[in-house]
Amino acid sequence: MLCLDYVVTAAIFSIPAIGYLSYFEPLLKEPIWLGTGAIVLLVSLLFLNVVGIKESANFTFGLSILSLLSEIALIILGLALVIPNGSLLHWPQMFNLGTMPTWSQLVQGITLAMVSYLGIEALAQAAEETKIAGKTIPRATMLTLVIVIALYLAISLVAVNVVPPTILSSTWKNDPLSGVASNLPGTSVLVVGWIALLGCAISIIGANAGIIGSSRTLFALSRYRLLPRRFGQIHPKFRTPHVAVMTFGIGSILLVLFSTYVFLTGGEDPLVLLGSLYNVGALVAYVSAHASLIVTRNTDRPRFRPFRVPLTLHFKRRSGTLELPLLPLLGLLATSAIWIAVIMTHELGRELGIVWVVMGMGLYIYFRRKNRLPLRGRAPPEPREVSSPGKGERPILSP
């Protein structure tokens, strides 16, 4: 299900990446060309990740810094233009929210809103290629969450002061940042064009994170003999899991093709369809992560933990002390509830999710049976070889 999460992440970010470019070429607003452009982008990212994780990481880092600075500049510019007219704290009076949604519509909106945080969990997939991962990954995750939430609130505050929500969600559906920039008083065409490129860059970062996450997950599954070892095969020159990269990269391309076809035949918008499918997989992964943390805190006490989730209750019992970390418990309850809501409100996402699970479990059972490995027991991992590092590089482990 985590692999499904990453495959959809790459697909769902590739579409707005091209949508933002439609500011320069209106033809890209057409569904057929929007889908075609998204596929071209995914193919380019596949080759980038086959060449090397270092090149991919440097590419993402550069875009991230550029995007972060540009977003902050947009927020400052927007607040500077909005605050003087006194509308900053009176924005609810400036537009009509429309009719009150039904409970089912509210629940469906919450399930789709979960997509806003997609890609953050992909940080964990870079652990093996990160220095002091036990401390670096948690810190990076928390820092990312703080930055993301702050930017969401600030940009949303600017957006609702300059663009009516009905227009932002229709005319500027595929490139909302451009809509905000174009409606700021006194902004030039150059500023709007730069913001369009910014939105494209942010989306490319998300798509690339999905490809990195899926390839590393598939590589790990192969190493621990949960899937055929071919998925963990390392390229002899680039030392990357090229089979894993290409396999799930092609999966993302197929999802873009499918969602575009559904939309052209009168079905759901590609972003809505992919968003519901993403949540089917991501929320299962979130639920599993929360539950695993609670369980392993009590069953694997001796393990060295560089980082421990705070706010833990301790209960004394005859067999020892029971630890109950509160944050994972709340996360477990919340993500479970939202996952149930996703299953109930998104029919096509539910059906595609079931197909994905059947395919994945079928492949797992076939592989384990063929190699005479237990279905429920733990198989010993594949032996790993260490490649000779170049100057200034860390050794790369491979099956």
**Termini separation (Å)?**
23 Å
Secondary-structure element string: HHHHHHHHHHEEHHEE
The CATH homologous superfamily of the domain at 2-264: Amino acid/polyamine transporter I
Radius of gyration: 23 Å
Q: Strand fraction band? A: under 5%
Q: Share of helix among residues? A: 55-70%
**SS-based structural class?**
mainly alpha
Structural commentary:
- The chain is mainly alpha-helical and 399 residues long.
- The chain is 64% helix and 4% strand.
- It contains 12 helices and 4 strands, in the order ααααααααααββααββ.
- A two-stranded antiparallel sheet has the order 1-2.
- A hairpin with a 2-residue loop joins strand 1 (312-317) and strand 2 (320-325).
- Helix 1 (2-21) packs across helix 2 (31-51).
- It starts with a helix and ends with a strand.
Summarize this entry quickly.
This protein has 12 helices and 4 strands; from the N terminus they run ααααααααααββααββ.
